[in-house]
Automatic annotation (TrEMBL):
It comes from the Bacteria. One of its GO terms (biological process) is L-amino acid transport. Pfam families: ABC_tran. Gene3D superfamilies: P-loop containing nucleotide triphosphate hydrolases. PROSITE patterns: ABC_TRANSPORTER_2 (PS50893). Belongs to the ABC transporter superfamily. One of its GO terms (molecular function) is branched-chain amino acid transmembrane transporter activity. This is Urea ABC transporter ATP-binding subunit UrtE. InterPro entries: AAA+_ATPase, ABC_transporter-like_ATP-bd, ABC_transptr_urea_ATP-bd_UrtE, BCAA_Transport_ATP-bd_LivF, P-loop_NTPase. Residues 2-235 form the ABC transporter domain. Keywords: Amino-acid transport, ATP-binding, Nucleotide-binding, Transport. It comes from Cohnella fermenti.
Length: 235
């Protein structure tokens, strides 16, 4: 589904990613881990087209999207929940959700502006907040809104950048449950950036670790406790 090959990217003349390769297969939850500042968010932004690739290749469903703009990638079936959520503070919850329809591949749904009930069902608290402004929500509520907004487009691949960062434990548990539900449904693959080992163990299938802008380890859940792995994650 997603294939990243020898990717190099950065900001201006500063190269952050060096020779990064990873894969996400259909139905998988792939977890990307590492300390702060190692390039995880830069990689996700490069996959989404927010940051331009210097070298290497990004393929999605067999098509080379390395030079495609972000909008095309979204309409091809890639959803994105950025670190920090980035909801539209002056718009209502309902208006934020409808923005997600811009990336929907179903032209009829884009035309009717109908929000898929399946996306909202995963966050049942949201309909009661439809009239509230996005900026008035708590951090956890904003995270649920950003997640649901990405699901509205019915993506084949979902990029989640630190979805548990800075939110209350009860909503972290809700987000874990939603990720497991998506995995069990088998229609959407996920690339998850997360630092909590407990979180990734509960939802992940395949794991990658980054250090200084490159992938230094990949493997399955059974090897996560190996001391050689843990040295890349401990501060």
């Amino acid at each position: 589904m997603l294939s990243v090959e020898a990717l190099e990217a950065g900001y201006g003349e500063s190269m952050i990613l060096r020779d990064v390769s990873l894969k996400v297969e259909p139905g998988q939850v792939v977890c990307l881990m590492g300390r702060n500042g190692v390039g995880k968010s830069t990689l996700v932004k490069s996959i989404m087209g927010v940051i331009k690739t210097k070298r290497g290749q990004v393929k999605f469903n067999g098509s080379d999207i390395t030079r495609s703009p972000s909008g095309e990638r979204a309409r091809a079936g890639i959803g994105y929940v950025p670190q920090g959520r980035e909801v539209f503070g002056q718009l209502s919850v309902y208006e934020n959700l409808r923005i997600g329809l811009e990336a929907c591949r179903d032209k009829k749904r884009r035309k009717t502006r109908e929000i898929p009930s399946e996306a909202i069902a995963k966050f049942p608290v949201l309909p009661s907040m439809y009239g509230r402004r996005g900026g008035d929500l708590s951090g956890g509520q904003q995270q649920q809104l950003a997640f649901a907004r990405a699901l509205v487009s019915e993506p084949e691949l979902l990029l989640l950048d630190e979805p548990a960062e800075g939110i209350q434990p009860s909503i972290v548990q809700d987000i874990q449950d939603v990720i497991r539900s998506i995995r069990n449904e088998g229609r959407t693959s996920i690339l998850l950036v997360e630092q909590s080992l407990d979180f990734v163990r509960s939802v992940g299938d395949v794991f990658y670790i980054m250090e200084k802008g490159t992938i230094v380890w990949s493997g399955g859940k059974e090897r996560l406790d190996d001391p050689n792995v843990m040295r890349y994650l401990t501060i």
